[in-house]
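Moderator note: this is an archived Q&A kept for reference. The question asked for a predicted structure of one protein chain; the sequence and the answer are reproduced below.
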Amino acid sequence: MAEQGIDDFLLAKRKAAERLGATDVSVLPRNTEIESALGEYHRLFSSESHTATIRDLRQTALKTMGMFVRFQPRLVGPVLSGTASEHSEIDLHLFADRAESVALLLLERDIPHQATERRLRYEANRIVGYPAFRFVAGDQPIDVVVFPVDGIRQAPSSPVDGKPMRRGDAAEVRNLLFGATDLPRLPWGG
């Protein structure tokens, strides 16, 4: 996952099992173990460059969140948790009455994008599809999922541990970047 930029735990497990010739899925590690090992890998083998990569990704995320401020953006996934690599995309959750409002903003800003759908799990048997948009900021891929406005109250399940996904607002991302003191104020008020 760290070297090839795979963010999908199941895909990574399948590739590793295939490479190792493992046929018994019960021997594969849990997602929480993989996430922990990823963090350890980054600390051991690429501490300085990984810290710089996470900082750059979070700065790009924060700038992008500023563009979407009216949609109450939240950063999720490996960039928020700090396990992202230079291959990772930035994942944002937005909240709007209509997904078309997000598409219109992208069009108004002349940002080439691709409309798609993301299917997210809430409970074992409940998967919900949401409109999503993919685009590039600088050279960084961004993936935004648009939830209904009241979707801010209930996060989908995390692919790591199955608990509600951690969502970081702009203040939390700034805190991760700059620490709790001397946080710069952003022009958009985030």
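Archived answer notes: The two ends are 32 Å apart (CA to CA).
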